[in-house]
Amino acid sequence: MTSAPSSATASGLRAWADRTSCVQGGRLPFHLSVPQGGPVRGRVVVTDEVTDEVRLSAPVSGPDWTLEVPAGWPSSLYRAAFHREGQPRSGPLPGAEPEHEVWFAVRAARPGATSSILVSVPFATWRAYTRAGQPGRGLYFTEQPDRAARVSFASPGGGPPPERWEEGLLRWLPGAGYPVEFCSGLDLHDGDELLSHYRLLVVNGHDEYWSMEMRDSVETFARRGGNLAFFAANTAWWQMRLEDGLRTMVCHRDAAGDPMSAVDPRRVTVEWSSAPVDRPENAMTGVSFRRGAGAWGEGMTVMRKDAYTARFAGHWVFDGTGLADGEQFARGALGYETDACEVEWVAGVPRATGSDSTPSSFVVLATADLRHWRDYGQGGAATMGVFRLGAGTVFNAATINWGSVVADDPVVDRITRNVLDRLSGTVASDGWDCAGDPSEVRALTVCEGTLFGADGSGRLLCRAPSGQNLPWRPVGDATGVVCLASSREAAGALPLELYAATDDGRLLRREAVAGSAPWQQVATVPPGTGALALCDAGVFAVTPHDDTLHHLSALRPEEPWRVLGDAGGAVALTTMNSRLWAVTADGRLRTRLPVVSPAVFTDCASPGPPGGSLALAAHAGSLYSAVPGGPLRVWRPPAPR
After folding, report:
1. Ranges assigned E (strand) in 432-568
2. Is the pLDDT of residue 7 over 70?
3. What is the 3-state secondary structure (H, E, C) of 315-349?
4. Contacts of 480 (CB under 8 A, 6+ apart)
5. What's the CA gap between 9 and 5, in Å, rounded?
6. What is residue 580's three-state secondary structure?
7. Which of 34, 525, 561, 608 ranks highest by number of CB atoms within 10 Å?
8. How far apart are CA 73 and CA 88, in angstroms?
9. Can the peptide bond before residue 276 be classed as cis, meaning omega within 30 degrees of 0?
């Protein structure tokens, strides 16, 4: 196979830098050469590629030249273009790669000083696609046995591909009013200290190649309370290794050919989800190209024809868009590769199954059926979603081409702003996310992994305890029920059952199964009971009219109720992690220990749900709240600040 002609024919120079990033006020060495040898003299023009501002035009002589990066240059993505004396400043020849251009990021000298948002530039992926198809020089293509397994950053080339998937979002950010700071993706390799200065990491466009150290740092950042926004797809598809002081990228794409297989299987350079690594990228990103779609070559024209369909328009990500469930948006944003997760459909609502390592907290926001893309490459789907990773929140647009339409599509613009504002901390969150459409549910509890509710029509309802907007399903009778409760764990001889207080003063219980299991009366409740909770075989009841908390042993229901004192203004009550949790009539979230000795409710740092609450339930560290006529809401402990 014949190598593509070098752009040095057009510019007269080849150039590369020691690193893919440099700090403000630092020094970045460059190395220059000419194909036929001889003296290296010319000129360099350094441009801020985000704003198109020329920052430097200066003479250079080689073979070595060092850029003294001024402390006043903004953190951004830069391009240094070198031209030999007497040669025109033309671009590369057709089919050539611009080997006279060197792209690099300038990092903030004081990380986080000007922005809580860090944008990563995918230099590893850019390098991986350099010299594609050239035997022994490029990592591509996968099926070619003579492809390279090692490529060097200390060589010409390695700029963005012709489609420039990252450019749209990067150029939109300053005009949209978002000051951000930049880094190279390679800076995330052992990047714990760098990331610790930010609230949000943005991964943009096509960031396909990640080292184990990059992934470890990013996942640790999220688990500690940092947030991630993937306006990208095909993210972290290949594991690669960085060697020679981050100057060489290794990616065998084949466990049998990678000598690391016999040394440390965790670092073998295969797909992240493949053996022997077995660490699906879904666990970090929520979605994967394995279930996504791809349109390649001439098939890329299909990208302009498809759109997302909104599946959870009540979610904060869609605030201000005016969308309703079932409406299409972001036409043209899908492609040329997309990511997706396995979903199951529950009465027309998609829900992530988690069988492909997508986290159980993943909420599907929008979907696109792209099975017809098999005619252009790979048929599949696209799944936009959001989930919790430790104490952090992760949003994923699940498409490479998102940034290409953000400047022209008002809905894409609004979604992008919502994500950036919320996850960067610019807009404060009360922690209560929408988890379902408005309903008439007035009582809630969770038992044996199912969320139960009772509505004003006397129906017992159920659905999964999830942040997804799943519909309620009638499963029995709840006539007269005003509040529900259940124990989290068996205590003594107390089975896991539903308990209910009725408007005529009865305490009932029944099995937590769908169908016509009968309610049985076990006791009476204090007159005016409006909230109920169980903990450690004890039944706690609140009578809001006199603000009193009562206690009864569920093992000895024939005994009288015991007055414990004031209820702290509670109108809704539940148990989570061996504590009582309450919402007051004036909207405060409060908690206390479930003891029968003197104790008081104390305010939480987080507020109660907006609009108030008449029912609370708890599951897996989350609270669920309902008020008739309002949406179901879910609260999780906020990330540290």
Report:
1. 432-434, 441-447, 450-455, 459-463, 473-477, 481-486, 497-502, 506-511, 520-524, 531-535, 538-543, 548-553, 562-566
2. no
3. CHHHCCCCCCCCCEECCCCCCCEECECCEEEECCE
4. 458, 502, 503, 504, 506
5. 8
6. strand
7. 608
8. 28
9. yes
- Statement: residue 2 has pLDDT above 50: no
- Find how far residue 445's CA is from the centre of its chain: 29
Candidates 488, 468, 451, 405; CA nearest to 626 is: 451
In the block, residue with structure tokens 């409060």: 590
Q: Residue 354: how many CA atoms within 13 Å on its side-chain side? A: 7
**Span 403-461, pLDDT tens digits:** 999 999 999 999 999 999 999 999 988 889 999 999 999 999 999 999 999 999 999 99
Query: What distance, in Å, lies between the first and last C-alpha atoms of the chain?
Result: 55
Cα(281)–Cα(364) distance, rounded to whole angstroms? 17
- Helix and strand tally (H, E) in the chain? 7, 46
Question: Is the C-alpha dihedral spanning 629, 631, 632, 634 positive or negative?
Answer: negative
Structure tokens at 300: 């890329």
Please state, in angstroms and rounded to a whole number, the distance separating the CA atoms of residues 633 and 620: 15
Q: How confident is the model at residue 5 (pLDDT cuts 50, 70, 90)?
A: very low
Within 8 A by CB and 6+ apart from 358, the residues are: 282, 283, 286, 287, 288, 341, 342, 352, 387
Total-model pTM: 0.95
Distance separating alpha carbons of residues 178 and 189, to the nearest angstrom = 25
CA distances from 172 to 127, 168, 271, 404, 417 (A): 24, 6, 32, 9, 11
Q: Which amino acid would we find at residue 103?
A: W
In what helix (H) or strand (E) does residue 77 lie, and over which residues does it extend?
A: strand 76-84
**Which residues touch 301 (CB under 8 Å, ≥6 apart)?**
none
Contact 82, 92 (CB under 8 A): no
Evaluate the CA torsion angle 409, 415, 418, 421 in order and state its sign: negative
> What is the rounded CA–CA span in Å between residue 553 and residue 539?
6
DSSP percent split of the chain into helix, strand, coil, nearest 5: 15, 40, 50
| Structure tokens given for 592 | 């206390």
Give me the residue label for tokens 């024809």.
Answer: 305
CA–CA gap between residue 444 and residue 624 (Å, rounded): 8
The pLDDT tens digits of the residues spanning 476-526 come to: 999 999 999 998 776 667 889 999 999 999 999 999 987 778 999 999 999
**Separation between Cα atoms, residue 155 and residue 134, nearest integer Å:** 15
Query: Which of 2, 58, 67 minimizes the C-alpha distance to 29?
Result: 67
Nearest by Cα to 338 from 298, 317, 305, 369: 369
Residue 613 CB partners (closer than 8 Å, separation 6+) = 571, 572, 583, 625, 626, 627
* CA–CA separation, 376 and 299 (whole Å): 5
CB environment 553-589: b (16+ within 10 A), e (fewer): bbeeeeeebeebeebbbbbbbbbbeeebbbbbeebbb
**Strands 432-434 and 441-447: what pairing?**
unpaired
Strand pairing class (328-329; 241-243): unpaired
Residues in the chain: 641
- Tokens encoding 335: 């492609």
